[in-house]
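Hey,
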Amino acid sequence: MTEQTLVTLTLAILIASIAAAEIRNLKNTALAYMLHSIFLCAIIISYAYIKDNPSLYLWAITCFITKVVVLPYMILRFVRILPPVEHRPIIGFGISLTLVSIILVVFFYLFKKYLFLLAPTEAAMQEPVRSLLAGAFTIFALGIWTLLTRRDAVKTVIGLALLENGVHLVLLALTPTLRETTMIGILTNVVAVVFLLLFLSSNIYQVFGSTDTVKLSELKR
């Protein structure tokens, strides 16, 4: 397994991240997030092999169970009671896809070029760590974009999950040889938070017939 494999997986997870954020069909959104998480697990496994750190395999197994199996299952189970397509977002599909693609390309380039400001270490300046960190910060930015531009509660969950996966990649890239990294990575999973968000969203939908976060924010008035 070569370092080029990690760079390829980084590009793949970025594409899957865009799909998870931009796809309007909620079922397909959950599947896109599942694919995104599969790439995340593959990156962790690659690092475990390259850095000869068997403890990272435990992190990869936990990641697979929580992010490839449990979280998509919870989302798919929830969206069964919803309309198949998310609430119309603040920005239309065509404009949003164009903007997010341009923004992410620019962000990836800037993060990679000025990475020394965010991670001023010699290791961070070398490939594949440099590309992985740039990809991680870009995914984090995409999570924020999703939270700011989407009205559907499911997309709020997806945005939160993307943010958390970006944190995973940063942690993995900066300290892959430490055994403590594995435990921290395992403990930072957001399964409980996602479960609570979906549970509350389900109850709100049953009462008000909507998971539009804009409308829900008006209920307090």
